[in-house]
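Hi all, long-time lurker, first post. I run a small reading group and we've been trying to get comfortable going from sequence to structure in the token notation. Rather than ask abstract questions, I figured I'd post a concrete chain and ask someone more experienced to write out its structure so we can walk through it together at our next meeting. Sequence below, copied exactly:
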Amino acid sequence: MTINSNALKIKKKILVIDDSALMRRVMCDIINSDERFQVVEQAFDGQAAYELLKKNQYDGVVLDVNMPKMNGIQLLRALQKEKIRVRVMMASTDTRDGAAVTMEALDLGAIDFIEKPVNIVYLKSSGFKDKFLDTLQAVVTSRQTNIIATPVVTREKQEENTQKLVNIVRKTKPVVTGQKIVALACSTGGPKALQSVVPRLPAELAAPVLIVQHMPKGFTQSLAERLDSLSKIKVKEAAEGDVLENGVVYISMGGKHMNVATKGGRPTITYTDEPPREGVKPCANYMYESLKTSNYAQIVCVVLTGMGADGTKGIVNLETSKKIHVIAQDEASSTVYGMPKAIAATGLVNQVVALDDVAQEIIMNVGVR
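-- Answer (accepted) --
Happy to help. Here is the structure in token form:
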């Protein structure tokens, strides 16, 4: 007798939490249509979900934000308080308030999110279904959960450590003279990872920092505002025509591809509207490739957690024209070891470091003013 190998696969158990019966039905249909997953429980509010999570284990949780009795944020806080480990994918709206709440959910341990479309037609489209299933797969296979084992460093201690490093770097001479720039790419787990990198960068950093984080339009502004509130270095969502300045972090706007062009002899942000590349928009490959014709003497390329391989082709192309230094996050600290693994496989990586050491290596490589 021939045994179908697919029949032997154990489906990942999913809990769906949403107060909308329509959304629950649509999400359950999508999840159950894929042989990798199976919805085993549903809950219509956070309180009911909390009771389920206290006594049952699931491979993944799809969580709505706005619900009666206990909303998504309150549930995440309760799970952290009780040390209940879960892997959560948020279902979020693209309103300004919705985007800000999504950033809070990611702070509280949600691994990634899917943007809930307002249009019911798109809700049932193959585009939404594919994005939903890809995100869910990244979440359930993530190395991380909502409970972080490492102790949290206070902001005061973090700033003290950064200042010590700045003082050390000021006493050393840079290896490469001329203008430098940092170009960073991340995806799943990126918003949380960036909180371990950007706030540790000093305002005196002798380079601008470009960041492509895979996010839809609207969410990137909330991400920039969140990081800016935590950092001494200035953080902003990059705008068309921004002239790059040292000591400023520029986060690519969601839904467009960020490039650097030389205008009037100055490096300037410009956006293009090509279709998604590597399945994402913004795509870091465009950012890296646009730097080929820039006036920067060295590009420090940083690749953090994320599924897929975005950034790899761009860095490979950039290396043919520019002096680059590549820093990749290590597997142990990556939420999803996809993008760092892809660039490591090229042999171009100069350093593989834990997330907590990324900012230090950036500072050491570009220097301070």
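A couple of things your group might point at:
Residues 140 and 252 are 27 Å apart (CA to CA).
Residues 155-170 form the longest helix (16 residues).
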